[in-house]
Design a protein that fits this description.
By secondary structure, this protein is of the alpha/beta class. The structure holds alpha-L-arabinofuranose.
């Protein structure tokens, strides 16, 4: 029924077309991607011992700390009786995950206090029955602060473990920055990422990586905004910050949600590089999160924006500057003398009102003056339609930003109805970055069910068809801890041991792995694009590197349908063959994956046949498939 004119090779699909948006929400960074297992490792949460239990003689001190930006430390002293003990115990992030026979690097900054005798600590992994499932001793022999570390093997698997540290000698010691990482992190880095989660991101083959948020960029107030300069350098001296998602718009409240900044901008750039994605950092534009901050006084006046603008300029230098530059040297000292080759920068997250363009304008001016090639991403506000959206798009055009970040968290029906959303967008203005979107099925508590994934797949045919103007898109949010989430749906769910890819993940992956190099026009006989007529949504691309056409079809009805794609404009004897075809489907729209049944909905091999220049696809009801035709 459809035609694909092979002579009309359309606009390039940008390498950045499909990507990832990361935010520390739902324990996405601390307690999630960042592999640190100890919560409040430096005792610098405002409640100094949050996350810790203490026993015996334990005192919080801050005189002569080893790290001035995280001044608190503990002194553990002899409890004064042979039957008494002194020690501390950390609860982790809703527990600590230990895997049998896996090894963990325990480290602590410590010194002996008021004693010439060597001191000793015993480090234990504990399960909920209070059994020891891993243990090692460490000698603290210096009166000066030193880093001590030891590798401990877990003897059993435990999802809700704890870390216990005993003072195992009769004197006193001081401890700070108590840390525990699996040795097997992504790429084996010491200050590393949880391997399964980082690998899942890499496996999407993202072209763009937007970080670090979201509302956390803006902060609940300006003091708690994301300040990239605090997130670089030695991890021990990155100050703790209160997470915006400590408080939430939903009824979930996590008083223990802070950012250690252990996963900071250097690590985000590294991850972008590892994944082969272009980094897209987003910085505060001087507006605190506008939800619940209607008062202009919550924000920086435009006249006082200079330090914020300087932060943006310095970030570009940190990413791209030569090692001889101030910030390029900081990057080099951290281990990356080569530039990160930053091409995009976002200024402001999901801002709105007149104050946004007012704040953005001086950033655009100064960034353009110093870095004319840098692509600037502006925002169209919190929703993909409505007053703010209508006001901000013309403003973004006036300010000549390169891309406009659109956000839409909407019902599945909205996604179906908006498959043609970009067909008539102005081609002369900025390009589109669909920076946060997800289909929210309220009827099932916004689960990541198959309906949500199918509606996103159908909608994304419209992103692909309009890849001349849509240059980037990223699902949101990315991660959620099953015991500590405040927002759903989310693309990947995890506990302390396992993770689960949602059907939404697979839709993103199918697009990213089959993005092709150029758009192609796929039409009904009446020359209309395939945007939901007869419950079919479809788009096509050409991949010049593989010399193949890739057709994507979502059949959102319940019935199977035979779809014929006639490839016109080819040489008479052109010999087409069918390449890899893959489909994700389910006859239950409410079906989900869970940690226990992670493969309930996964992509499967599909078949299609070619008859001369006609591709025959037998699409099943409620399916999304990717079909390749090779030349
Ligand atoms: O993705 C969750 C939140 O949604 C983001 O932090 C914010 O940008 C949007 O409101």
């Amino acid at each position: 029924e459809f035609t694909l004119d092979t002579k009309k090779v359309g606009a390039p699909v940008q390498s950045t077309m499909y990507g990832l948006f990361f935010e520390d929400i739902n324990f996405g960074a601390d307690g999630g991607l960042y592999a640190e297992l100890v919560k409040n490792r430096s005792f610098d949460f405002p409640q100094e011992l949050m996350g810790w239990y203490t026993f015996g003689k334990v005192e919080v001190r801050k005189d002569n700390p080893p790290f001035d930006k995280n001044p608190n430390y503990l002194v553990l002293s002899n409890p004064g009786h042979a039957h008494k003990h002194t020690g501390i115990e950390n609860e982790g992030f809703r527990g600590m995950g230990f895997k049998k026979d896996a090894t963990y690097r325990f480290s602590v900054w410590a010194k002996k206090v008021n004693t010439t005798e060597d001191q000793k600590i015993r480090v234990e992994f504990i399960n909920p029955k209070d059994e020891v499932i891993g243990s090692q001793e460490l000698i603290i022999n210096s009166p000066d602060w030193q880093k001590h570390q030891v590798v401990i093997t877990a003897k059993a698997t435990e999802e809700k473990g704890r870390l216990r540290i005993f003072l195992a000698s009769r004197g006193a010691i001081a401890v700070d920055h108590v840390s525990l990482f699996p040795t097997d992190t992504y790429k084996g880095r010491e200050n590393g990422l949880r391997k399964d989660l980082a690998q899942a991101l890499t496996d999407i083959t993202p072209g763009i990586f937007r970080f670090p948020g979201g509302c956390i960029v803006e902060g609940t107030d300006l003091d708690t905004r994301y300040d990239w300069k605090k997130t670089i350098g030695p991890v021990e001296n990155r100050p703790v910050n209160e997470n915006r998602w400590h408080y939430t718009f939903t009824n979930r409240f996590f008083p223990d949600y802070y950012q250690s900044y252990g996963l900071g901008f250097y690590e985000y750039f590294l991850l972008s590089e590892d994944m082969g994605a272009e980094p897209l950092p987003v910085l505060s534009c001087g507006l605190a999160c506008q939800f619940q901050n209607e008062d202009r006084h919550a924000h920086v006046p435009v006249s006082d924006l200079a330090p914020y603008i300087q932060d943006a300029l310095d970030l570009i230098e940190f990413a791209n500057g030569p090692v001889t530059s101030t910030w390029g040297k900081v990057r080099a000292d951290m281990g990356h003398p080569e530039p990160f080759n930053l091409k995009f920068i976002g200024i402001g997250n999901e801002q709105w009102g007149e104050e946004y363009p007012e704040h953005l304008a001086p950033f655009v001016k100064e960034i353009r003056a110093k870095y004319p090639d840098m692509k600037i991403v502006g925002s169209s506000g919190p929703s993909a339609d409505g007053k703010q959206f209508d006001y901000l798009w013309p403003e973004m055009k006036r300010l000549k930003v390169d891309l406009v970040d659109e956000h839409y968290y909407k019902e599945p029906d909205w996604f179906f109805k908006n498959a043609a959303r970009y067909d008539n967008y102005d081609r002369k203005g900025p390009a589109v970055f669909a920076g946060e979107y997800a289909s929210h099925d309220h009827s099932t508590g916004k689960q990541n069910n198959f309906l949500s994934a199918l509606s996103e797949a159908a909608f994304m045919t419209g992103l692909e068809r309009n890849a001349d103007i849509v240059h980037m898109c990223t699902y949101a949010p990315l991660f959620a801890h099953v015991d500590a989430w405040q927002w759903c749906p989310d693309m990947i769910w995890f506990d302390n041991l396992r993770m689960m890819k949602t059907p939404n993940y697979y839709v993103q992956q199918l697009y990213a792995q089959n993005k092709g190099t150029n758009t192609m026009t796929l039409l009904w006989p009446d020359k209309k694009a395939v945007t939901g007529q007869d419950n079919l949504y479809a788009s096509a691309v050409y991949d010049k590197d593989q010399n193949c056409y890739i057709v994507k079809v979502a059949n959102t009805g319940t019935e199977a349908k035979n779809v014929k794609v006639t490839l016109t404009g080819t040489k008479k004897n052109a010999a087409f063959t069918v390449g890899d075809c893959i489909v994700i489907k389910n006859n239950n729209l409410k079906a989900i994956n869970t940690l226990d049944t992670p493969t309930n909905i996964i992509p499967e091999k599909a078949t299609a046949s070619i008859d001369g220049n006609i591709l025959n696809i037998q699409t099943q009801g409620q399916s999304f498939g990717v079909y390749k035709v090779k030349l």
